[in-house]
Amino acid sequence: MHTPQAYTIPILHSALHPSSTTIGLFLASSTNEITTSIPLQHINTALTPYTELGLELATAYAESKGLKVVGLYIAHEDKVAGLGRVGEKILGKLGVGAFGAVLNNERLATGEGAFDVRPLYPNRV
Length: 125
Hints:
This protein is α+β, with helices and mostly antiparallel strands and 125 residues long. 32% of the residues lie in helices and 27% in strands. Strand 1 and strand 2 form a beta hairpin. The longest helix is centred in the middle third of the chain and has 16 residues, at 49-64. It starts with a helix and ends in a 5-residue tail after the last strand.
């Protein structure tokens, strides 16, 4: 069972910054229950040293709580389909088995489901 908080945080993060691309990470327990998420950034969302540091800090935080990073969420400021270049690169850094979820900023205010795209699993060996 996944907690509602894990999916509420990405929605609130995206709603707070609707004109920016927002990126965050999903954390899971040892039983693979997604328990929470961490907002990573909403400014300068290119794959930069800032992003790399954020990933390292989030991973260290997760490990200190007995959790692991299992996926990422992204909400694009423009009409990028899927995870986009930056999302794919971050997902690649998370490792095999990680997933990505895309939120639709335009639908956040309508009351429709915010997660526009089902989780995406990259083709990896």
